[in-house]
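USER: My hope is that you can spare some time for a protein that puzzles me. I am handing you a single protein, as its sequence and its fold in token form. Walk me, if you will, through where the backbone shape changes along the chain. The protein I mean follows directly.
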Amino acid sequence: MGELTGKRIVLGVTGGVAAYKAAELVRALVREQAAVEVVLTATGARFVSAATFQALSGNPVWLDLWDDRASGGMAHIELGRRADAIVVAPASADFLAKLACGLADDLLSTLCLARPAGRVLMVAPAMNREMWDNPATRRNAARLREDGVALLGPADGEQACGETGPGRMAEPGELIEALIATFQPRRLAGRRLLITAGPTFEPIDPVRGLTNLSSGRMGYALARAAAEAGAAVTLVSGPVSLATPGGVERVDVLTALQMREAVLSRLADIDLFIAVAAVCDFRAAEPSVAKVKKEGASLSLPLARNPDILAEVAARPDAPFCVGFAAETERLEEQAEAKRRAKGLPLLVGNLVQEGMGGENSRLVLFDDGGMHPIAPGSKREIARRLIGEIAARLPGGAHG
């Protein structure tokens, strides 16, 4: 099943070259098994035809405020009420001004104004960089945010006019992720979360180092799930090749000592600390400033022990709620529970390395004062959402939503 299965999405398309991305967005929404109805403005139709959107969505396109297909000719009422979300992409400068001022002179602006209270409205601005930087446009954008409209983008980059700067429409994939997030329970609303993810890399010399097989996927999936759940998330990440989840602040580090410094300097007002990173236990005691040559009869590498970041945080008198991870190769129950007790953690997530480390799927077990609790297997995204639910339920005060 797609992540938007059963959701009804109204997609508004206004004028601009970025309208071609709206066609890609419709395809992506359909892949997620959403039902899509497109409302195309007169200027939007100059860039992409109604026939294209009808073919991609499988539904007739709405063009006219006076379309008699709706009950009593009230398309602006009917469309908004049966939609789970309204998305306008691209949203031109003109449309942002209409929306901010409450103008309603065509079907799209009218249905946005008539949408039921609490209905999700997301807009993805797209325009020339000078238009976006104009004070009038910035005032309109600020007013829309105050009114509860979600603005996604614009992105910075090369524009169709040949200039470079802010004004590009957010990519369809980003809009899909943001839309999926709006339908997730807000269990961590108002919470502040600090999470570590990925491996650390401990240099031996300028070209070699000590590291491990962690991909960072679990940590990034948890950061994404926590942001979906309404948390303000800071992700301290070792070296990985993963995109930063939407709405997450990312801090890149390399070594265990750098990760420790980044974590300790950001603990103020943190409600929850999740240590997912696979931190190297040891580092080279004296890294070489030059490449170590392989010539010679033998080579010794003196090691120094790295700090235990999680244990240090958990031992603080003002410690946030701490969650640890333990990847073991054998006797998971025994070793994970011993680690939890030694570090004084309320919750530890354990897994066997051979059952998911570095892969797309994982099998995890929770350990707390109540014993051992297996988590149903699934993709890292599915498991991350389940874990966030379990963690939220254990936080002081419980889940918020």
In short: The mean pLDDT is 89. Residues 192-394 form a domain with the Rossmann fold fold (CATH 3.40.50.10300). Residues 380-394 form the longest helix (15 residues).
